[in-house]
Design brief:
Helix 3 (45-57) runs antiparallel to helix 4 (61-71), helix 5 packs parallel to helix 8 and helix 7 runs antiparallel to helix 8 (150-213). Helices cover 85% and strands 0% of the residues. The chain is mostly helical.
């Protein structure tokens, strides 16, 4: 029962309630999928980059690439692009890393528009159901010709359940959307910092290699 009203009664009189329940299932699925996805991507970026720089410093590019494959998160995917193209110019590598970060951000934001949309629209869907319910309640009152307010009170209370259901769906969606977007921003900062570190380190390594190969060194 919801607010003293049998759930079967609500499902019968409020199709918007049915729709909101379906949306809540969809939202829950998105939350679980994104939570698991972000949990797997969490890593210590400083430790990861130290391992990468150590391998590069020893000239073991393939070892660094293998480590990226093993890590398998957004940060490692971006760094892998830079390692695969380390022989190119500094500007070219930076552009490729920038493109890789864009693609990874799209992957990180996957399905978040669903939560954002539901967080904004679910209350209006619930309100729409409430308005329809109130219209129906007063229509029933007019047809019955009764002056007893109890004849319409039950219909209104049933209609207001739709608004409550809309808020029930919207509030968790809004909270989780903001939480996930903060996670995406954190991942984006980590990828950008790692990209800059990688470009600088590769450039410095190339400069030192050229200096060693220069005549008379």
């Amino acid at each position: 029962m919801i607010a003293g009203i049998p759930i079967t009664r609500i499902l019968q009189i409020s199709p918007t309630f049915d729709f909101l329940m379906l949306l809540s299932i969809l939202a829950l699925g998105v939350m679980i999928e994104r939570w698991n996805n972000y949990r797997k991507m969490k890593a210590d970026p400083q430790r990861f980059m130290e391992r990468i720089k150590m391998s590069i410093g020893q000239g073991k590019i393939q070892e660094a690439l293998f480590y990226c494959e093993q890590t398998g998160n957004s940060l490692s995917n971006v760094v892998k692009v830079g390692l695969q193209n380390y022989k190119l110019s500094k500007d070219a590598v930076f552009e490729l890393l920038d493109g890789a970060r864009m693609l990874e951000r799209l992957h990180l934001e996957k399905w978040l528009t669903v939560l954002g949309t539901l967080g904004n629209s679910a209350p209006f869907i619930g309100l729409f159901g409430t308005v329809l319910g109130i219209i129906r309640a007063f229509g029933d009152l007019a047809r019955s010709g009764s002056s007893d307010p109890k004849a319409v009170m039950l219909g209104i209370s049933e209609a207001l359940v739709a608004t409550a259901a809309g808020l029930f769906v919207a509030i968790p969606c809004a909270v989780m959307y903001n939480y996930f977007m903060n996670q995406v921003k954190r991942f984006a900062v980590e990828m950008e910092v790692a990209s800059k570190e990688l470009v600088v380190f590769l450039s410095e390594r190339e400069r030192l290699s050229e200096k060693k190969e220069a005549p008379g060194f």
